[in-house]
Amino acid sequence: MIARYSGGESGARAAARAGAVVVDAFRASTTIAVLVSKGARVVPVASVEEAASAETDFHIGERGSAKVAGFDFGNSPTEILGSQIPPGSTVALSTTNGTRLVEAAGGARAILTGAFVNAGVIAEELAGGACEGAEVVVLGCGWEGRRTSEDEAAAGAIFDRLRSRGAELDGRARRVVEEYLSRSARTLRNNSAARRLKRLGYEGDLDFCLAEDTVPVVPRRVGDAFVG
């Protein structure tokens, strides 16, 4: 297997002929992992309006990291972990960056979501042929078109585990691994995304999002929804 790194919507569109892993560590990919671990179906939608009108059991969303008014939950994995969302529920999810990138990657052979919390099981699944091809692209979502250190570090966590399973990494992927291994969690807890979450009262989400291999599920898009 060849594993590549790319970022943003242009990178997602370029990954159309490969399998894709969408990484939005703070917080969409982590939230999706938690929802799937609870047995929910997660329908990603790009716009707030589409999410609000979706005929689903729950509506989850954020803009600028803040909860969308009128929705059941914000994009908070810790809030959702403690919620009473029953197995079999269908959830509409709209976020500033993550769900837009999922939409941009719509032509990919397979679409998974990955983060620190499920890096190991994602790598294991990819090494076992989850993307049904010889190439996988791990996509860092970034923030409004800019690179983010947390997404690149989470991608590095996945690549590091993939490399140990025999995958060949391209140059960008190798650099992302080097940065992951040298960048401390303390640094990530104080980057711009982390400071924004702290201002909004979501500091508890940071520790959850940065913990590795704590939610061992593989969210895969089947039809219009991510399932386990």
TrEMBL record:
Source domain of life: Bacteria
Single GO MF descriptor: 2-phosphosulfolactate phosphatase activity
Gene3D superfamilies associated with the record: ComB-like
Chemical reaction(s) catalysed: (2R)-O-phospho-3-sulfolactate + H2O = (2R)-3-sulfolactate + phosphate
InterPro entries: ComB-like, ComB-like_sf
Main EC class the enzyme belongs to: hydrolase
Signal peptide positions on this chain: none
Family: Belongs to the ComB family.
Matches recorded under PANTHER family: 2-PHOSPHOSULFOLACTATE PHOSPHATASE-RELATED
Name the record gives this protein: Probable 2-phosphosulfolactate phosphatase
Organism expressing this protein natively: uncultured Rubrobacteraceae bacterium
